[in-house]
């Protein structure tokens, strides 16, 4: 099997915040890998724009060091690194003033696709959009890429949508969620809608419940200041987890195009019931002798911000009536592991003795770190000891099934940036989708703030608070083990 690399049209990509951490770690190394793969046409350019006072040659040196340090696949050893660096330019710019804007407008004056990546603080999104429009860079071939957080509540998300809409059309705005760029996440749609085997069973008649887990083994680290203002609900549940739920629960779109897919995702969010207070657990990790606890990492000894959330949600429509969705996400858990598990119901009648045990089919989509799909099936245990049943996995690790080269997937940012250049918004959130997600999330956060009840403390390296285990135990179910 040979994957095809299809070059994109020539483009100018301007990275606002081009000297920042995200640009160094993800955006620039990702663009370099796309260049090495032959996906960038000869006259495509990458323009860094930031407050730092440097020229283009100094910026190329900066990018060389970033690629060497943060490119895990090539380690900067692509033979074309010098050639890639010639595509780079730099403009010193003031997002809130006039410095650099005339130079940027002149530099990007062409018939090529123009994309502007807002890798900056959210408070600068509006001013950047305004100045791009003012200086004639918001025409029909221009696109803006907006990083999260897209607001911190419904009110701020609406205000930001309004500001961006004053300068750009909705089809020019790309609200990026890197989780949607993961190969396995995209495979959710292929699994569901490309296989007759699963779609007839993908409903409340056959599915007992669904678990979505995004677990991290690290703490907040250097992001303590930001994270303490956001928390797990805003940082993960409102966007990443919501998107995974939508892809699992959505109806088949009429066509595989951006608005058809996003229309169906929007219907899922609107069908979500409010979460009852007893169906949600929030926690905060404690420290050990070797690792700081959350409050010390966040440098806030009185912090009541959650680093863990588990909840039970219901999608009130015909497909999913009475089928619970259990979602959990947290930091400093046992392993770094993300998966979606579709747990099917028991057979309506078992012909086997009770000694055979209780067995269920489980379809597991593994998102990280080992991407793949696993289907648990029940078979007879080998041997002459009678009819004893065991569960075994039909396991498709992408690395094994496709070979190491084919399974060496592009990073999510690589894929998503190329989609921006193509003008494909399928994997990006629409404005109304963002607002509806906040409308569902806001009452939960407001209740926490009104109650002023601190999150439950949980041990580093655990599966989270014991109350999260009880969330499922009282329903006669249990969380799947967190393991890589």
TrEMBL record:
Any idea which positions bind substrate? 178, 182, 216, 235, 331
UniProt GO cellular component terms: cytosol
Lineage, highest ranks first: Bacteria, Pseudomonadati, Pseudomonadota, Alphaproteobacteria, Rhodobacterales
Question: Which pathway does UniProt place it in?
Answer: Carbohydrate degradation; pentose phosphate pathway; D-ribulose 5-phosphate from D-glucose 6-phosphate (oxidative stage): step 1/3
The record, for InterPro entries, names: G6P_DH (IPR001282), G6P_DH_AS (IPR019796), G6P_DH_C (IPR022675), G6P_DH_NAD-bd (IPR022674), NAD(P)-bd_dom_sf (IPR036291)
What is the name of the protein in this document? Glucose-6-phosphate 1-dehydrogenase
Q: Boundaries of each Glucose-6-phosphate dehydrogenase C-terminal domain copy?
A: 189-480
Q: What GO molecular function annotations does the UniProt record carry, in alphabetical order?
A: glucose-6-phosphate dehydrogenase activity; NADP binding
Q: What class of enzyme is it?
A: oxidoreductase
Spell out the reaction equation it catalyses. Answer: D-glucose 6-phosphate + NADP(+) = 6-phospho-D-glucono-1,5-lactone + NADPH + H(+)
Organism field: Roseovarius albus
Keywords, A to Z, come to: Carbohydrate metabolism, Glucose metabolism, NADP, Oxidoreductase
Q: Where does NADP(+) bind?
A: 17-24, 51, 148
- Provide the E.C. number(s) assigned to this enzyme: 1.1.1.49
Residues of the Glucose-6-phosphate dehydrogenase NAD-binding domain? 14-187
On whether NADP is a keyword of this UniProt record, the answer is yes
Which family is this sequence assigned to?
Belongs to the glucose-6-phosphate dehydrogenase family.
The organism's superkingdom is given as Bacteria
